[in-house]
């Protein structure tokens, strides 16, 4: 009888002192459902945020870039910190939320307007 898929995976993540490597230790083999995969991705993303080298603050768009085409999005006000809460739906990572301070929204609006001319950017029609 096969094990039922689970939304929990028991594993240990150890970040090296240099912060350049991670050791993952898994127990017995596990069959995960979508919730279990989401938990694993979240744990690994958290550890990656602590590693060196850190992710570049500037986008690196050299060569082919894996992009989500026409993602769903949501925009709302962040009642706790002010500013705007921007949500983008990634098909594998789920909803990713970004809190943008009010002063950053003006610049984002300018950049979106600057790059959203249909003649310059095919497919930019929202």
In short:
The chain is an alpha+beta fold and 126 residues long.
How many β-strand runs?
5
Shape: extended
SS content category: alpha+beta
Give the overall pLDDT as a whole number. Answer: 83
Strand content: 15-25%
Radius of gyration: 19 Å
Strand order of the largest sheet: 3-4-5
How far apart lie the N and C ends? 49 Å
Question: Which regions contain 5 or more consecutive residues with pLDDT less than 50?
Answer: 121-126
Helical segment tally? 2
The overall number of domains is 2
Order of helices and strands: EEHEEEH
Helix coverage percent: 10-25%
**Largest beta sheet, briefly?**
3 strands, antiparallel
Description:
This protein has 126 residues and is α+β, with helices and mostly antiparallel strands. The chain has helices at 34-48, 102-115; strands spanning 11-15, 22-26, 73-77, 84-90, 94-100. The protein has a three-stranded antiparallel sheet with strand order 3-4-5. Strand 3 (73-77) and strand 4 (84-90) form a beta hairpin. The longest helix has 15 residues, at 34-48. The model is unreliable at 121-126 (pLDDT under 50).
List keywords for this structure.
2 domains; 3-stranded antiparallel sheet; 5 strands; 23% helix; extended
Structural topology:
Layout: E1 11-15, E2 22-26, H1 34-48, E3 73-77, E4 84-90, E5 94-100, H2 102-115
Antiparallel strand pairs: 1-2, 3-4, 4-5
């Amino acid at each position: 009888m096969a094990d039922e898929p689970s939304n929990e995976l028991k594993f240990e993540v150890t970040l090296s002192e240099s912060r350049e490597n991670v050791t993952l230790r898994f127990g017995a083999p596990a069959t995960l459902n979508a919730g279990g995969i989401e938990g694993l991705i979240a744990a690994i993303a958290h550890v990656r945020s602590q590693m060196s080298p850190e992710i570049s603050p500037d986008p690196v768009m050299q060569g082919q870039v894996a992009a989500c085409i026409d993602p769903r999005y949501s925009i709302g006000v962040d009642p706790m910190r002010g500013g705007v809460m921007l949500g983008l739906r990634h098909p594998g990572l789920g909803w990713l939320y970004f809190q943008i301070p009010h002063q950053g929204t003006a610049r984002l609006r300018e950049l979106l307007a600057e790059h959203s001319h249909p003649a310059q950017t095919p497919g930019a029609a929202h």
